[in-house]
Amino acid sequence: MRSIKLRAPAKINLFLEVTGKRPDGYHDLATLFARISLADELTLRRVVKPGLSLKVEGKAGLLPSKTEDNIVYKAAMAFFKTFNIKPAVEIRLVKKVPVGAGLGGGSSDAAAALKGLCRLHGVDRKRNRGKLNAIALELGSDVPFFLTENAFSAGTGRGELLAPVKSKGRLPFIVLVYPGVPVHTGPVYRALKPAAPGETASNLKKFRTLLKALKAGKPLNDWAALLFNRLEEPVLPNHPEVLSAREYLIEAGAPAVLMSGSGASVFALTESRAAAVKISKILKKPHYKVFLVDFLLKF
Length: 299
Prior knowledge:
Elements: E1 3-21, E2 27-46, E3 51-57, H1 71-82, E4 88-94, H2 105-121, H3 129-139, H4 143-147, E5 152-156, E6 161-164, E7 173-178, H5 185-191, H6 199-216, H7 220-223, E8 228-229, H8 232-235, H9 240-251, E9 256-259, E10 266-270, H10 273-282, E11 289-293
Parallel strand pairs: 1-8, 3-4
Antiparallel strand pairs: 1-2, 2-4, 2-5, 5-6, 7-10, 7-11, 9-10
């Protein structure tokens, strides 16, 4: 095989609670990852010339100015080092997922690069799962989720301890809004204040109830109130663009609205596509990027 093309789907978080701060500086989480249909595209090609080249296209926001700082480049170089392979590959990345949006675009790109390189070089992913997961976690806390084939995963630890969640029934439709201004993850976690006594335990109970509802195939109205994101607390007061987008979705009549990850994207869930289309038209503002997307069960 000399070339391969892959999609790198984004994610949203239907639930995100911070359960504590770790000695290594990271935070422990309880989160529900959901893969969605918005995706970047990667093409990997084996070439004669030694080395690794990366070309990035698309207007998804601010990306590292140096190729060596791009997470896809880092993932590829870690792959070659781990499996003792001399690089001779060209990678073309077409960005469609906004950057700094809480959608895991870069993490998904990195995971897709690892998957593609395995196929390109005949590396058995199942046999080398441990090595690949180690690379993924070194790159970022969301990357291990994107290495899986799960549509939904409950994540604990940094988010890397994953349990697949099998959904039943018809899933809601998604209106995704990126308000045009990125949010950087590090400052969000640094600004996070400890939860009130008993609040985390109460939220973890909601988390378990949400997982049960999704597995049972219950309608959106039964679990809309269980959606939660602790990171809204430090983000919304300090990023008026994110707050406004969230409020617009609520005013448009969306039954469930939440920020994804550390922002800046917010999303609404609706029971019907017609309702999603109606809301998306209301949200057509010059600096917004509005996407009508679906939960991605097969990819």
